[in-house]
Structure formats: structure tokens, C-alpha cells
Amino acid sequence: RFSSDEVIRKRLLIDGDGAGDDRRINLLVKSFIKWCNSGSQEEGYLQYQRMLSTLSQCEFSMGKTLLVYDMNLREMENYEKIYKDIENSIAAAHEKISECKKQILQAKRIRKNRQEYDALAKVIQHHPDRHETLKQLEALGKELQNLSHIKENVEDKLELRRKQFHVLLSTIHELQQTLENDEKLSEAEESQETQMEAEAKQ
Does residue 165 sit within a domain? Predict the structure, then answer.
């Protein structure tokens, strides 16, 4: 014997997405039996119209299911395209990060040169020609300022690329989770349809 909860659960599984297919089939069978056993022509015609109405509802439900299936296929194709775009974006991000690393190495070399310039400036300070020495120091100061700006720009670019790369990885993770959920939903729907077909054959 089945409890009321088990009966409700079984009917929901048979009914699919709750569109009332099981109820419509039962109603169609009952209408067919009444049509076969109808005593008058008027009652037979009424049962015949009811069967046509139920069949129309079943055909509409089937068409709706096919549309949902086609929509899911298009969504899967769209997800695959998005996934490829993300892969391309990740590859581009790797290239940008590699370029930023090269710029960092260049900045380190510039810093080393700046240290050498500082050492040279100390030597120049002992030069007897004070006017020329001041000119050179001014030029070195401008060069150091430009190098400092270059270093700051490179560091800002590197930080931006790191943030962009983190966003890309987060998007991939969310997309993978969505695809897994869609696959689980599809498997559940296929299982329900298989069970409905098996019970319909019984």
C-alpha cells in the first residue's frame, strides 16, 4: 500500500513538468470508454468533442516540450560559444601578463641604471665646473622622474591585468557550475520521460 505522499510523488513524476499530461491521458481514456458505451447519438457526439479537445491539449503540450528542448539546445550552443570566448580571453590575458613581466624586467634595468646615474651624479658633484655639473644634475633629475613614472605605469598595468585575470577565472567557474546544473536538469528530465514511457506501456 502507498501512502498519500508516495502517491502524490508518483503522480508528479508521471506528470513531468506539471503540465497535466497524465491527467489528460486518463481523461482521454475515460472519454473513449464513455464514447464506446454512449447510448445516444448526442451523448456520443459530446464525448467525441471532448476527446478532440483533450487530444488538442496533448498536442499543444507536446509542441511546448519540443520548443523547450530546442531552446535548451540553442542555450547549450551559446554556452559553448561563451566558453570559447572566455578561453580566448584567458589566452590574451596570459599574453598581456607575459608582456607586463617583460616591462617589469625593463623597469628593473631602468632602476639599476638610475642607481648608476645616482653614483655618477655624486662623482660629478666633485667636478670643478659647477655650472655644467648643475645642468647635468638637472637632466638626471628629469630622467629619474620619467623613469619613476614609467615604473608606476607598469605596476598599474600589471595590477589591472591581475584583476582582469581574476574576473575571467571567476566567470569560468560560474559558467562551469551553470553547465553542470543544466546537465543535471536534463538528466532528471530524461529520467522522468523514460519513467513516463515505461508506465505508459504498462
Answer: yes
- 151, 107 contact by CB (below 8 A): yes
CA–CA separation, 124 and 138 (whole Å)? 12
pTM of the full predicted structure? 0.32
**Cα–Cα distance between 116 and 43 in angstroms, integer?**
108
Query: 185 is in which domain, residue-wise?
Result: 149-201
CA 25 to chain CA centroid, Å, is 39
Same domain, 190 and 103: no
Of 7, 177, 145, nearest to 79 (Cα)?
Answer: 177
CA 192, CA 188: separation in Å to the nearest integer?
6
Q: Are residues 9 and 89 in the same domain?
A: yes
CA distance 165 to 160: 9
Query: So what's the pLDDT on residue 18?
Result: 45
Quick check: is 133 in a domain? no
Work out the average pLDDT over 53-81. 84
pLDDT of residue 44: 72
